[in-house]
Structures are given as structure tokens and as C-alpha cells.
Fold this sequence. Notes:
By secondary structure, this protein is of the alpha+beta class.
Amino acid sequence: MTGTYPMNVDGKARITFPSPFRKEVDKRIKLVPVKDCVYGFTPEGFDAWVEGLFTYGDRQYNPRDTKDVKLRRGLYASAVDADIDSAGRIALGKLDVAKPGRREALGLVGEVMVIGSGDHFEVWNADKWRAEQESFEDDLDALMFG
């Protein structure tokens, strides 16, 4: 998924999912709060992302490693199932079911940005996203050629 799409959170805590993204996912998605934003995955993409966090070199998920178990459990526990409704909207309010106030704490009220990030999409508070982009643009040469 690619691109940046400004959206507004409506009175029922929903956003319209960008139409280019709707072509890449089925009706069911997983929303995962991660630091300053929410990641969105297909169910299969979410599983692959979680497992990918533990796979590098010869390293795999170790069910006897407390850190691995806590991280995996925490990611699955914080993920929220959401559907894209018939009008193409996603209910961000579902983020508040397990932890009331989570959506507001992430700043996902009013204007937000829905951005493509390859294998997933992200939903950011618009002001946080603009600051993130400004920092990226300042560092672009160093990131590419440093």
C-alpha cells in the first residue's frame, strides 16, 4: 500500500478507508496500536508481521523465552478486529473496547492521515504525521546516502 490520504474521524469514531486500499484488502482487518499511530493489516498480514518480528538469521520465536512470549502475547492481545462497512468506513472506536481512551490518547480524533506503508497501512493524527514527514524530509539525504 502506498500514498497519503487525509481523512476526518466522524462523530461515531469512523474514518473512510481510502479506495485504493480497499482493493488490496478484504472486509476484515486487524488494527494494532503502535506508539504514535495505529497499524492496519489483513489478518494474514498481521500474523506474518508478528512472526517476522521473531525471525532473523537462524533466530525463531522461542516459547521458552519470556521476552518472546510477552511480546507475542501483547501484540495479539492489543490487536482489534475491525470490518470495512458497506460505505467503506472503519470504526476506530473499536480501539477503545479493551482500553478506554486509547484512540484519543493516540490523537485519532478530528483530522487524521491514512498512509500506505508497504504491507500495511497506518492511521496517524494529522499534526503528528506532518511533524514525522518534516523530520523525514530533513533526513532524506542522510537516510538514502549516509
